[in-house]
């Protein structure tokens, strides 16, 4: 998995852009975000330790208010203190780590979405080939719902293959099979409407 924190630290990903886009997700407000950006920019352009006065000169907040905000950011784990050449300085490494985690989660979500789309496309192509026709929009939505409900690819394929064995060339049959299996797995009472559908399309219980 890509280490986004290292990419931010090495400036391959813009720290400021990542922070502006994701500050709310990591638990910052607008004032805190601006303070962190100014700490970042000031640290880039001056070698000496940064003071609250440096930040206050660029904001409408007083030095006391800046000091309070920075203290809270340290308490919340967005800023740490480190010794550099015998002087205490602010480090934004904790914020960079939090941003890296958010970007990594986005990558995981995106990959999961791509995998789901790929599996769904395989199932659609398989069903259309065996049904000998193009699936309707309602059938496509049904397949989408199966994935959104967290049904496994194996269960979906098994239900479709069972439909094909019974020469039921519609997805209502497969859907009823999946509902029936889900009910049995959860050991819940069968919904009367589902029971009626199962009887209508002759799903063996």
Task: For this entry, give a set of tags.
205 residues, mainly alpha, 69% helix
Chart the SSEs and their pairings.
Elements: H1 4-9, H2 15-26, H3 30-45, H4 52-56, H5 63-75, E1 80-84, E2 87-91, H6 93-131, H7 137-148, H8 153-165, H9 171-186, H10 192-200
Antiparallel strand pairs: 1-2
What can you tell me about this protein's structure?
This protein is mainly alpha-helical. Strands 1-2 form a two-stranded antiparallel ribbon. Strand 1 and strand 2 form a beta hairpin. Helix 2 packs antiparallel against helix 3, helix 2 packs across helix 6 and helix 8 crosses helix 9. The radius of gyration is 28 Å and the shape is rod-shaped. The two termini are about 45 Å apart. About 20% of the residues are buried.
Instruction: Provide the low-confidence segments as ranges.
Output: none
pLDDT averaged residue by residue? 83
Strand content bin = under 5%
What separation lies between the terminal Cα atoms? 45 Å
> Taking strands numbered 1, 2, ... along the chain, how are they ordered across the largest sheet?
1-2
Order of helices and strands: HHHHHEEHHHHH
Anisotropy-based shape: rod-shaped
Overall strand count: 2
- The percentage helix is 55-70%
Q: Gyration radius, to the nearest Å? A: 28 Å
Provide a count of the helices: 10
Biggest sheet record: 2 strands, antiparallel
SSE-based structural type: mainly alpha
